[in-house]
Amino acid sequence: MSERSADKGVHELKVSAVVEETADARTLVFEVPDELSERFRYRPGQFLTLRVPSARTGSVARCYSLCSSPHCDDRIAVTVKRIADGYASNLICDTVAVGDLITVLEPSGSFGPRELDADVLLCAAGSGITPVLSIIKSIMVGGRGNVVVLYANRDRRSVIFADVLDDLTYRYPGRLQVLHWLESERGLPTAAAVEELVRPHSGRDWFLCGPAGFMTVVGAAAHALRVPTTRIHTEEYRSLQSNPFDKPIHTNGNTPLGDVAVVEVDIDGETHILKWPKHTPLLDVLLDNGIDAPYVCRESACGTCVCSVKQGRTRMRQNEALIDDELALGLTLACQTLPESPRVHIAFDQ
Ligand SMILES: Cc1cc2nc3c(=O)[nH]c(=O)nc-3n(C[C@H](O)[C@H](O)[C@H](O)COP(=O)(O)OP(=O)(O)OC[C@H]3O[C@@H](n4cnc5c(N)ncnc54)[C@H](O)[C@@H]3O)c2cc1C
Questions:
Q1: What is the pLDDT of residues 209-242, one digit of tens each?
Q2: Domains and CATH numbers, the chain
Q3: How many beta carbons lie within 10 A of that of residue 212, not counting itself?
Q4: Which of 40, 60, 142, 349 has the fewest CB atoms in 10 Å of its CB?
């Protein structure tokens, strides 16, 4: 049973349609009741976290990007692609049917453009197209930007949203260009080939989404083209190790005396003054104190727990979500942040 409740962002949504996109991918369309519509407002590029039952552990949590666009789609939807031997993706594709209730966390994540009028380069492989489709539709309908998409797939039959992309390209000539890469015809994409393909568009902001191997290849192409890291935004697909639907794990409290900072935290219109042990991430401190801080992955990847350091010094154990520009603005991830000065002031204002 889920230990986080509706006021912590956990809800049950009814599946209103299941669409077979390819042999390996299904889109789940959800019905959001009117009273939850505010909670399910989202930005293109964000994802839902689904609770998937497991006989062994009770449940596992898996993130799925929204392929729908807040600018033109009435219903929210995610697309799930089977992974060989994957637990949740196969269970979802095999068993989820119209009318099922699925437990989900509210939309989350920081991937996606801040504004829709700038030109962007989007690079996706396989199911990495889901947030990319949401971004494309949002820019086309809600903005004035031009979009080039590099989209890699195994073969023609595995291309998710092939018709939708063709249709969008037809409707927005001159604004949208899709460069398909099929492994069946050209082998796996190499950094040198990607570099050649995207060179004319390399001055734009880059948004990369897909499995680790693809990200490495496109990252290497970006590096070769000397694209500043501040213009490269990534969403790496992987399974969560932790389970945000479970009760948060509390720290053991065996903190040596003297190894404690004091933190003032502004969150949800309240201010809390707390002791912050120097080796305990801020998010753990907040949850230990019963404060309803936002989080999903607790692994620095999703960006849900982003907050601002207003005063004092902190450091992160690791960071996969924030780019240099955001760090320069004082942003940090609560799940990774440790204190470096005796007093720190943090605000959840993002
Ligand atoms: C922000 C975000 C957005 C995402 N969006 C999407 C999306 O839109 N669509 C989509 O399809 N996916 C998406 N994903 C990926 C998704 O969350 C899952 O990771 C994916 O569905 C695989 O989950 P699974 O349970 O089927 O596979 P898992 O059971 O987690 O297995 C994944 C792979 O790892 C291997 N594996 C599992 N356990 C081990 C182990 N202990 N040791 C070695 N190998 C192991 C499996 O054999 C398999 O190949 C997203 C991920 C993130 C973080």
A1: 998 899 999 999 999 999 998 899 999 888 988 8
A2: 6-108 (2.40.30.10), 120-236 (3.40.50.80), 260-347 (3.10.20.30)
A3: 10
A4: 349
